[in-house]
Structure prediction request, 752 residues.
Amino acid sequence: AQEARRKFDRLYGYKVSPVMWQKVKPGLSAGRVQSVANRLVVERERERIAFQTAAYSSLEAEMSSDATFTAALTAINDVRVATGRDFDAQGQLSQADRTVINTDQGKQLASALTGVEFTVQSVEPKPYRRRPSAPFMTSTLQQEASGRLGFSASRTMGAAQKLYEEGHITYMRTDSTTLSADALSAARTLIRERFGSDQLPADARVYNKKVKNAQEAHEAIRPAGDAWRNPADLGFKGDKTDSDQARLYHLIWSRTIASQMNDAEGQTVTIRLAATPSGSETYQFGTSGTVITSPGFLAVYGRQSDESDDEERELPNLSQGDTVVASSLESKDHQTKPPARYTEATLVRRLEELGVGRPSTYASILGTIQSRGYVWKKGQALVPTLTAFATVGLMENHFPQLVDYALTASMEDDLDQISVGEIEPNPWLDDFYFGRVNANGEPLPGLRNLVSDEHLADIDPVEINTIPIGIDKDGQVVVAKVGKNFPYVQRGDEYRSLPAGIAPDEITLDLAIELLETPEERVLGVDPATGIEVIARPGTFGPYVSLGRPPKMPAASSPGGQLLSLPLHKKELKVAVAYMRCMTDDPDNDSVKQAIKNPKRGIGDAAIKRLIEFGDTHEINLIEAFERAKEAGSSPAAQKAIRSFLKLRKSIVDLRETDAPTALQSCLEQSGYLKDLQRGDNEERLTNINSLIETSRVFDSVIEVVAELDRIDELKTQPKPKTASLFQTMTLERITLDEALELLSLPRTVGT
Prediction:
């Protein structure tokens, strides 16, 4: 099952990711779980974009008897007053039998009902009981650590890994809530000694797993051993100086103990009051409060991170027929809110509910969708980028079964059946890749067909990367586009980059038009000291002035721009570029050195240093020094390695006559570097290399790729103009030359 999962995920990633590079932009990736996670985040943002707000008011009264308490208006003449939950996403009432209080009505009622006497219509006491939550599994630990401690999933798993390695907790990647007999005994002993026998239920609590596809290969996450260390022993003091490990251990310790304690018990009282001050309309108010009489597990663990303490309040002892006075009233205006964005915790919970992914993968998936530029964090919220919108649209329209929630979860079911021998892995993989026939005899295309040239020819990259915004007053369509380097808005031939940190639901038609009507640049004049033009421009991080213009880098859509969008600073791409340079007639020494060392060929740094010095003495490059290795005094072993490398170079130089992607692919295969990466867990590195190979298709040859890289390097070395951001009180339209020169003269402050 593990092998089938690995092969399935590689087929998915290696075949679909290149489609992303070709149709959206290089450096992206697709995956069985990450693509579904992206879709969830994007769908939530679409809901927010489509959401229509509705306005309503509420009325809260302070009631006085022997004691004061607050109550809210709930109905007028037995017709319930609308609250936020009574409106749908279009801003319309979803319940017909509701009355909406507007701002003016709220103020009038607050004035009219002040000092009015209300009669208690009913007092309804109900017993209150809450059971403790189950011990942690991986996903619930990530969710609760996010809510209580503000930890990201990766931070939680990093702290848990250290606790596990140091022997403080059990294995932290599990989908089980089961505790072993030893753990149950340890928990009950600790509770008895510290909190008393009256806090123990008669029998140990057993929690049944409710998550789809649970494997339960390990028990729940708990303190390790059969005598659990006190959190204080690990340095937990309950303040800001606590380490991540101490805080997380305290959370695990208290959750595990709480899971074996008594329920929290108490009483919830609901009071309903009414008054008919004018003799025609009856106004009904209500309030409720809970009094905890036996805290049980709450004494150790408190409430869940997503629960409120507001309901826990004591109300005065009132009976039906008693009267109270509304001493003051306050009208509050509200607007319905769009559905909240996912946080790391709520996204993990949703993936778990759908049965997509495994506890061990959630933290890495959350890291991947952020590092690949699909999602960024605004506080705790996960905000999708326009790149995510483009890739999700591509998958939904052209690979729908690969991001279908039910089908993705069924893959986990199939893998579970493979693990117990009910399904054979190879036929299952064949069906996925080559296609199959469904129960109705209809052919279902496989992955091979979906990524075929014939199918990909039908995918329009312009359409995929365009997100409609609206139509301006002149009937022109305004859109947002992904862009190779930055997102932007466009109307006809006009375009402007979008400000950094803007969420998709904030890209309104008004904002887009405002950006489009901002001048692209204003030449303010000439700096008298240097004779260089002073220019004001809008920028991704706000408007700024510059002394001169920066070097004009290749446009995002140009071949050079596509190269620039790759992570060329990563080692694997540095090695690939070095091999391309070795295919030229006169490769530089750094590239030769990089190529001969990756993969290792049995020639060390000292041997290479000797050859470089020999080359400097004889005014020859490193390749020529290699050809005179014996004369340079290299050892027999080094000479053998050098002869092998020179033979390889001759072979890859001959590849220059083939097209660029074929030449680069063959070069990296012959060098052994690609095979070296494939031996380990290097999927991201392999993805980056595949992105470079795919991008090289826009060039006629490897020599052209190298020439463009040289041109870009030269542009990067040119001096950049001095710049300064405008103050918030300044605008591009009004800033003067003198103001710009004053800004440019100020010392540059970094990090403020």
Summary: The mean pLDDT is 89. DSSP finds 29 helices and 20 strands in the chain.
